[in-house]
Protein 1
Amino acid sequence: MGRIPQSFIDELIARANIVEIIGARVALKKAGREFRACCPFHSEKTPSFWVSPEKQFYHCFGCGAHGTVLGFLMEHDRLPFPEAVEELASSLGLDVPREGGGPEPRRPSETLYDLTAKVARFYGECLTRNERAQRYLEKRGLTREIIERFGIGYAPNSWNEVLRRFGSNDDERRKLSEVGLIIERERDAAREGERHYDRFRDRIMFPIRDSRGRVIAFGGRVIDQGEPKYLNSPETPLFHKGRELYGLYEARQNRSALQRLLVVEGYLDVVRLHQFGVPYAIATLGTATTSEHLKRIFQLVPNVTFAFDGDRAGRAAAWRALQNALPEAAAGREIRFLFLPEGEDPDTLVAAEGGEAFTRRVTEESLPLSEYLVRELGERIATRGADGRARVAQMVRPLIEQVPEGVYRRLLVERLAEAFGFQRTPEGVAELLGVSIGESAGAGARQALSGGRGGMVRQAVRLLVQYPEIAAQITADSLAAAFDAEEPGMDVLRTLLEELQRDPATTTGQVLERWRDRPEGNHLARLASMETLVPDAMAAARELNEAFDRLAQEAGRRRLDRLLEKDRSGSLSTDEKLEIQRLMLSLGRPRPPNIVH
């Protein structure tokens, strides 16, 4: 699926009524030009949450939550970004365009969602009429409440019950086939009127829901013996198993704030954990955890724990999960691994020891990614002596290279150095491994943007974020010289100004959405939440021009100091002597006697 054009996101932010969207979920009260409420993201009695229709931005002075109308939908409704865009566009009567990646994919018709919902209800009705299926679920310990919460049903032991009820004509059969509920027979095996048959037969059925609660696919489990034990819907216009997570919708409906997710293997594991008070359990759908899964998880929570059986297959699955998790490992995120006693799975273990004891296992017995990596390497490699350390380095290098540069990579390398006896500094170990552990290039800029109120660069960025329309009014003759100022954050300021001049924005919300996926985006949002220190855009433009003039003067002073220092060695060229004179004149300094034409 192609990328959503930035121009469309700009249009959404411009057209959306942030007060209306948030007001439908939170009781807002007007306070001057803004609206206030008790924050929906933390408990409080005195309102500290405000919404600015002018900026198209919200901020809580209590917990620090902030963002645009899209950010609110993602945080409050717990929607991934593309689905938040879909939700907002739908409320405005707009279709979401896509760009790149070849022809525009056909958007699934709402009738397909209607069809899967009807079939899910049919499976639920079949369960109430089938005593054998009910006895199986009772034997597995499922309560009526949890069965209803997850919409669990039963597919009849028939080759054509779904086909007969929902596929009376060619168009209906096409839709059933499109969502994977029926299968077309081989042409030479098909007789007239029997070209299709039901995919799911005599199975306990688990509806798979998207983030909006719509049924997009099914998973079916055999009741007695049979193969395959689990059968999932195929890839369809509604369902892409490499990004969907079973139980995620149900986990997000929990009233308490979602802080972590626990990834297990099976449908029944998820359902039983929820039943026993572990409502943050989810499962992948017959695949290993993919980078797309992890991106979705970290959009919702900062902590994820993978639970695996303690046998060989479980350890192999854990190693694959670790390798897929490394590109998403970063400061502020926690990735842990829990190994269950051999012969146990989450379903049986939580039934035996209860939800509280299982929760303690998750929090107390799970290993951080770094410790699991150390343990696994120690078991896989003989690490004694120089040869052992060389083998560790050889095996670790491609793993560390997948971890984004920054604090987490540095800490991970330091832990490996400690565990395997490298008698060197972390920098030396990093050199040995052939990887960088330094901060990313933008770290200095982010630090400059996140400091106190002072700093000309920070003030200039704040003005552009709060009054983006003034970018077109910058007239400072010293603009080019200002960009030569060796100040942290100057690259961000220059990029922000150039982008706004090339592609104007009218609200703070539009600016923040353009910077959503950039490392500095969160710091721009903090600047947006600061009190506006100028009365209007005209005053902001004057202040911004003055800031550029001061930055140009500072750049000139630094350049002059360097030239004068160079002059002390007598190595100035004629052009440099002329440059000193120009700088002296512009800065109002007396000319040194040894500088001549």
Note: The mean pLDDT is 83.
Protein 2
Amino acid sequence: MKYLIEFLPLFIAVPFLGFVISLFLPQSKEALLSKFSFTVAGIQLFSIIGFVGYWLFLGMPSLTIPDFVIVQTHEYKFFIDFWFDKISAVFILLGAFLTFLVTIYSRYYLHREKGYKRFFNTVLLFFLGFNFTVLAGNLESLFLGWEILGISSFLLIAFYRERYLPVKNAVKVFAIYRIGDIGLILAMWASHHFWHENIDFMKFTNSQLVEIQLNSHYLIGTFISLMIVIAATIKSAQMPFSSWLPRAMEGPTPSSAIFYGSLSVHIGAFLLLRTQAFWDHQPSIKILICLIGFVTSIIANAIARVQSSVKSQIAYSSISQIGIIFIEIALGFDTIALIHIAGNAFLRTYQLLVSPSVVSYLIREQFNNFVPRPLTYEDYIPKWMENTFFILSLKEWNLDTFIYKIYWRPLKWVGRKLNFITFKSLFYYYIPFAIMSIFLDYHKETFPESVEHYFPYLYGLLSIMFVLKSFSEKNNAIFAWILLIMNHFWIAIALSFNENFDFSEVYLYLSGIVLSGGVGLWALFTLNKIKRKTIGIQDYQGYAYSNPKIAMVFFIACLGLSGFPITPTFVAEDLIFSHIHSHQVVLAVMVSISFIVDGLAIIRIYSKIFLGAYVNAPQEMALKSS
């Protein structure tokens, strides 16, 4: 048993070292890049097979590694924790086998592609995030892997970055993912108040403890479960968030197979399985999961049958099956759900990998052998009903329009109303006000408690205003970037007015913001100087084509500013959320909205400036792909 526990961290170390080493391999050496990638995946696969075999021989014990504490205060502890059980065993075996298979396939499929190295770098980054997620022993560790999966997904969808649609759809998918990210953050925030500590998943298995806590904190427990369901629904493309999955198929076929056919799309189901011991005590949540799965399965199946693109057909078919998996999990059929997940993953990977060959074959075959359509159950229902359902399915039930109207349009509309926030007013009014606010914060004991109570909400509102203005800014990328930096300062000031909030925690949070923000400003000023103009963000300009090094530096700055786990800000985001009190739901929602739009604005700036067709290309390039 002891040797098994000591072996667990190697399943993180192998893909991590593989990713880091792959960054330094020369781009021109295709054979070296591909061989190295499938060697890393192969080492992981055969190690896991041996590990799982010995684990089965020992009787399938649950394995946990002692907590690795990163940050600890008198009220809070952020720790990395790993847990291995039958759920982890199925997913980690699935991930290693399919990654090994796809890396071998991609060696020839992507031969002579310009982004050959970029593809394998991203796949190894995804492999690291996937392993971290499925081995996570608490919500904080799971969120770290969850974030890596999200950014690697964006990079693979936008792989053909000189085209319009892949880049636009990558931004759309990232925007939907961002809601799921905040769902997890809010679940972690509520968990702090529910348990009064950071706990691991193993505590969920203590049903007596969970029932006692739910009886005394029923509303908070329901809120945690609801946030988990929202995060899982989005990650697994369930209704009403299903439309992002076919849009994600803009990437290369191998990435579509490994991401959206098999591994990434099942992470929502994994989240439900991992937290099942908690929400299983709440019948309303089980009914909600069943409803989501049932509606998704029916509608997605109908949409799949009328799609003209083979990738879209496979995507919606996979969504339909995951809907059934959600129902199985809600009903407590864990083993059946795991078998179903493995079967669906293998089938969709196979279908996507052979889809180019099958389409080519069917195009020729349809002219040689005509087969009349057989009768189906639709022929026995009224024609008006059949036609209505057909049109709705053909339009994908207007899911894209629905998301645009409730998500994108309000953000843009509010952002355009904030024209009073200008470059001049930023330096004349807002930055001096921020400095004055820091002074007031140090002397907050002089204010009456009734007045001090409203300060966090005031600065929370300012953070939302600044981030929405940045999201709608078109003329000046530097101005939009400064607004995003200021947004984090407003959040820090807002929460520093809460009681028992240590200033060292503010410094930890802002250290990554200042560093990443400064690097990003340097990259934008350098690009302005090279191009001899103020870079705007109206259209996709593709400057990664002419300035790849600046593009890489700015992308790293974007990751740091958005709270990706490369700076202390990642840990501090969870830390500052723990200081929002349980009765300050409005403040938690305000900070969450700020984080959602912050991520969207950051990825929008990067995409508009560095992705898309190069604006100064010597030859004419199509703006939009078909």
Note: The first strand starts at residue 63 and ends at 64.
